[in-house]
Design a protein that fits this description.
Helix content: 40-55%
Family: Belongs to the MEMO1 family.
Oligomer: single chain
Largest sheet: 9 strands, mixed
Number of domains: 2
Organism: Erythranthe guttata
Shape: globular
CATH class of the largest domain: Alpha Beta
CATH topology of the largest domain: Protocatechuate 4,5-dioxygenase, Chain B
Protein name: MEMO1 family protein
Keywords: Membrane, Transmembrane, Transmembrane helix
CATH architecture of the largest domain: 3-Layer(aba) Sandwich
CATH superfamily of the largest domain: LigB-like
Radius of gyration: 25 Å
Distance between the termini: 96 Å
InterPro entries: MEMO1_fam
Number of strands: 12
Strand content: 15-25%
């Protein structure tokens, strides 16, 4: 019996040591895989950026600044810094809008610059950079479904004409509420709604130091919109904060699955304009419930409906009186037949109402 148990315990001990060895090998293998998956993107990313300002990249152990590249440069807008700078300067000059320190927020489009770059200047041209230290970006999510708002994992947003650091302190404050999730870098880079505002911000804040707080606004319910509005309202009361709300207006045509046409306005593009302008008038009242009602009744394809709604709730819950005024309305083309399609662009400034 003793012999049997002896043999038994011997084989068990033998098995245990083999098992430990196996565990050790597996652990080493996983560590190896982790190092590889971590270092390869860093290496390739560092190679891409090494001819840029590499003082932004610190390899501290394995910790690395996460950089959101200007993923839509070269397609949605030029990646040539000189050309981009001149384009923005031209639009800002031509719009004839004066900077005002009373302007605390803008609503601006996010299409390719050849479509909406000119219209966007009527929003960004209002910004007086003097006293602003951070810009909250509120943009809709086009590809990634989430019922919440998501913060960026990046530490820096790049543009061809300069970079914008993320305000990590505010990110931490927002994270601490437990109401936000974080979007992965690939989600961040796939989304264009906030990126299209960045070159304008870099241009307007040239010579000033400013940080950004990007907030990807998901498919929120009315209650969630109100909740985020209340949560962000305190930031409105700090005059060093600015808000850049990203939205296009009506997407009209069968390719957008929206062909509402009220013939009493005449041509289709006039009907679209009437539809958009009634929405813009409601946004100007600052009433989130009226805006919600308008969307229910018209189903207007305003892609930034959630960011706009959150913003309206923020204004409603803050103690600063701020009034939204639309300054520009354009359409990508004038629809005349049911086969046509267009996207509308509207730019607004939100001003402290004395």
């Amino acid at each position: 019996m003793a012999q049997l148990s002896g043999i038994g315990s011997l084989s068990l001990a033998h098995f245990a040591s083999e098992f430990n060895l196996l565990l050790l090998l597996l652990t080493l293998f996983f560590i190896y895989i982790n190092i590889i998956t971590y270092l390869v993107p860093i290496y390739s990313r560092r190679r891409i950026y090494h001819h840029h300002h590499h003082h932004h990249h610190h390899l501290l152990g394995f910790g690395m600044d996460k950089i959101r590249r200007a993923s839509h440069a070269g397609s949605w807008y030029t990646d040539n810094p000189k050309k981009l700078g001149e384009e923005l300067d031209g639009w800002l000059r031509d719009c004839g809008v004066a900077q005002s320190s009373d302007v605390r927020a803008v609503i601006a489009p996010h299409a390719g610059y050849s479509y909406s770059g000119r219209a966007a200047a009527y929003a960004f041209g209002n910004i007086d950079p003097e006293n602003i230290s951070r810009v909250f970006l509120l943009g809709p999510s086009h590809h990634h479904y989430t019922p919440k708002c998501a913060l960026s994992k990046a530490t820096l947003y790049k543009t061809p004409i300069g970079d914008l650091p993320i305000d990590l302190q505010v990110n931490e404050e927002l994270k601490a509420t437990g109401k936000f999730e974080f979007m992965d870098l690939h989600v961040d880079e796939a989304e264009h709604s906030m990126e299209m505002h960045l070159p304008y911000l870099v241009k307007v804040f040239q010579g000033y130091s400013v940080k950004v707080v990007p907030i990807l606004v998901g498919a929120l319910s009315a209650e969630t919109e109100a909740m985020y509005g209340r949560l962000l309202a305190k930031y409105v009361d700090d005059p060093t904060n600015f808000f850049s709300v990203s939205s296009d207006f009506c997407h009209w045509g069968s390719r957008f699955n929206y062909t509402h046409y009220d013939k009493k306005h005449g041509a289709i593009h006039k009907s679209i304009e009437a539809l958009d302008k009634s929405g813009m008038d409601i946004i100007e009242t600052g009433d989130p419930d009226a805006f919600k009602q308008y969307l229910l009744e018209t189903d207007n394809t305003i892609c930034g409906r959630h960011p706009i709604s959150v913003f309206l709730h923020m204004l409603k819950s803050s103690s600063t009186k701020i009034k939204i005024r639309f300054l520009r309305y354009e359409q990508s083309s004038h629809c005349k037949s049911m086969r046509d399609s267009s996207v509308s662009y509207a730019s607004a400034a939100a001003k402290v109402d004395a």
